[in-house]
Give the backbone structure.
Amino acid sequence: MITMTMKELSKALSKIDFCMFNTNGGEGKINSRPMSNNGDVEYDGDSWFFSYEDTRKVGEIGRDARVALTFTAPPSLLGKPGIFVAVDGDASVIRDKAQFEEHWVKDLDRWFPDGVDTPGLVLVKVSARTIEYWDGEHNGRIHLREADAVAEGAV
């Protein structure tokens, strides 16, 4: 098993726009929906998603912040397998307009017509705890606390 670095994983994720965003629906139910990362993928373990506050997912995050994201990319034109990425993390709901502006891209106007001033707009940040990946050639797991310690020279 060869382990990807966060830089390599970030490069792979930069080519994937949508993921399945999974929340705890209560009573043992997992709710999933497609969400776009809006090209905001200089990936360091944090994923960013815009949403309306009055959605089921935001309510579920309020009750249980543990979420999972799943990303997949198709095989390349030359036949190299695509990549599958599973993120186990914690979500937080952000209502800070300055952070909206930091993560806003013009394509979001399609869903949020008033831009960062759209009534009821929130930003959902998912901070990964564990990332698993498979690409047909390699597979592995990155524990973010360990990755942070290595990056800081502690390990």
